[in-house]
Design a protein that fits this description.
Helix content: 10-25%
Strand content: over 45%
Structural class: alpha+beta
Order of helices and strands: EEHEE
Strand order of the largest sheet: 1-2
Largest sheet: 2 strands, antiparallel
Shape: elongated
Number of helices: 1
Number of strands: 4
Radius of gyration: 18 Å
Length: 77
């Protein structure tokens, strides 16, 4: 769980939370839904070849990066 400050207006600030586990589950659901696609009746092979999530703060600004490399191909018999 990551907690960040969000500025609503000067000088009011509030915090919000980002659940990294929830983000990973959304990616997992996305990959599962691709596997179930079957163009021309063929199931798909899906490989998650890379996944990176990072968050940083510099000079009061947040940098959130989410990168995923997903390879999709027709499943070989």
């Amino acid at each position: 769980m990551v907690e960040i400050e969000v500025r609503k207006s000067e000088p009011e600030k509030t915090t919000t939370s980002i659940d990294i586990g929830q983000i990973i589950n959304k990616v997992r659901d996305f990959v599962s839904s691709i596997r179930e696609m079957s163009p021309e009746g063929k199931p798909m092979t899906v490989k998650v070849e890379g996944f990176n999530f990072s968050i940083g703060k510099k000079d009061g600004e947040y940098d959130l990066t989410l990168m995923a490399k997903i390879a999709i191909s027709p499943k070989e018999d």
